Amino acid sequence: MTGGAPRSFVFSADGRTMRLASGPGDPFAGPFAGRGPGAEATLRRLLHGDAVLAQRLVRWFNTSGVVAVAHSRTEVVAAVLGGLRRGRYCLISDPPERSSDRFSHDSNWFGPQFVGPAVPVAEIEDELSVIITRCDPRLLDGPLTFEYLLRLRGRPARLEIRSERFPGGLLYARDLSPEEASDGAHGGEWDGVVATPGPLQGERARPSHGPATVHIIHDFVHRDVAAFTIAGPPLSIVVPDLIRFDRDSALAVPGPWTTEGAHPLAALVQALVGLVHRPDHQLLIAGHGDASGNAGHNQSLSARRCDALRALIEGDADAWIEHARAQGSLRDVLAYTEYLGARRAWSCARGLDVDSIGVQADTQTRESVGAFQGDYNSRFQAELAVDGICGGQTLGAMFEVLHDELERWLAKFGCKLGELPRERIAYRGYGETLAGRHASLDVRQAHRRGPGADRVVDLILIPDSEQGVAPISPETLYDDPSLRWATLGVPEEPDEWGTGPFTVVTDLTPDEPVDSEIYKLFATDDPSFNVAFVVPEEASEDAGELVLRYQALPTHLRYTLVVISENGTHSTIFKDVPYGRLHEPPESH
To answer: Pairing between strand 540-542 and 103-104?
Structure first.
């Protein structure tokens, strides 16, 4: 070994460090951070003939977390030398004249370092330790908390918060008080405010400054570090999986593929209302597709899913019809007609098994489409041909009904469809690129998955960043660990949409002498619903006839009407009829 001034050598492996020795200098001039064959040769000289040092290296290597399992001395030394040769590990030297009572900026390997009072190397190595035992993974709205364990025998230590993405690298630094630096376990915290002099001093650390690290430092050997991210304002996602689509479809309509049969407009309304009330946010409508199939087709389909919603929001009937023709099906139409009959008191529900419907229309499906056409004419004062054919005009009628629902629903929350801030709505089709990834969000774990879970559109409210423009990319939305997610619930459908009136016209006149009868209306699928009127005493007069008026029947139930005479005789007027067909003549039931 060549002569010269004594040197202190530090071995660094995967972010952990160990001081090896103080001894004669080596051929390298000045301080160095060595890798490769030169560092290997230096370490060989340090270990040559020094069994104690070699054993310490073995012990450190096995307990530092650099490797997962213990190794023998021979294996460890071979691994260390091989790692130095390949450049994985580093050997760092410090000349003896380095100051021991100040921060030094001579070496860019560790950055600014706190060096305590000069202490014999053997004593430091054997007795001192600095360990961060726990650190919050994210800096949220409150302080960052961490815990650490010290054995410094009264020596000083320092707390630093660092980030390579922050100008100058140092966000916060202070000496630990004697109590905080005493031997034992401690809890610490950082309030998240930048303390380094400069234009950002006094401001809270920004998400763009992360990831960052907590450092507890005694000297450049005895120190520990823990990483964390800096979270920004939460991204709000409407309850996941509510806007699901049928296979290969771009139409957002309620059907057996939607979660619990919910109307996709429920989620869309919540997102749009949230956007109106958050002027510093933008709404991302993100379409997804299955990982199976042709990638180009999946990309086009996911974009169409977004664009069809855009057409609905912007009232573009022609664009929506084009999307329906390109990526829609008879199943979509019939699923919607069944929904209108069950929940909106239309007469077009036929109890169809939508899942079993093929691409070709049959008598039953034409009957359902024809009933929809008739209802549409009556409700929208239109003159649509009632022919049971699902062509462009019928798709246009379907669009108008959906658009009317959206408009009325928004009005319930004080929003006007025509006054939405459309410039703050972005549409992105991600195809299969995010298949499975969007489902990994924490907020999704509590919600149902299953078949078709990737055939969805996510509705995400994104706060503007500190630069004024919220970043929109798959990586930002689904892969950035610094992001927080909050779930927006979905409002119930307006009461008057879930209930509807029904009038029973009796065959009695006000002046006709009759015995009292009980008209009992009950829901066959909900025993708790049971309404009875005594006729003629509780009947109303309308155009010379006695009528019974039910003001708010739940539209999703099926009903039976029974007349009970004074002698106990029961007469069934109709049985197990869905609300949407109550207004039809009894013989048609």
So the answer is: unpaired
Polymer length in residues for the chain = 589
Question: What's the mean pLDDT in 310-325?
Answer: 94
Q: Domain 113-230 carries which CATH code?
A: 2.60.40.1930
Enumerate residues 6+ apart whose C-beta is below 8 A from 493.
263, 266, 343, 409
Q: Does domain 235-488 have CATH number 3.30.1330.60?
A: yes
If we measure between CA atoms, which residue out of 553, 548, 493, 503 comes closest to residue 524?
Answer: 553
pLDDT tens readout for residues 357-386: 766 667 888 888 999 999 999 888 899 999
Backbone angles phi, psi at 480, to 5 degrees: -75, 115
pLDDT, tens digit, for every residue of 38-62? 566 666 666 655 555 666 666 666 5
- The amino acid present at 255, given as its one-letter code, is G
Pick the closest to residue 6 from 19, 20, 22 (CA basis). 22
**C-alpha to C-alpha distances, 391 to 10, 19, 55, 320, 384, nearest whole angstrom:** 78, 81, 84, 13, 11
Supply the pTM of this predicted model. Answer: 0.57
Lowest mean pLDDT, pick from 327-331, 375-379, 467-471: 467-471
Query: Which residue ranges make up each domain of the chain?
Result: 7-97, 113-230, 235-488, 495-588
Name the least confident of 108-122, 335-349, 488-502, 574-588.
108-122
Q: 230 with 166: CB under 8 angstroms?
A: no
For the chain, give me the number of helices (H) and strands (E)? 12, 26
The Cα 198–Cα 127 span in angstroms is 39
Within this chain, domains 113-230 and 495-588 share the same CATH topology: yes
Residue 513 burial by Cβ neighbours in a 10 Å radius (0-12, 13-18, 19+) = exposed
Averaged pLDDT for residues 447-470:
64
The arrangement of secondary structure in 495-588, i.e. its CATH architecture, is Sandwich (2.60)
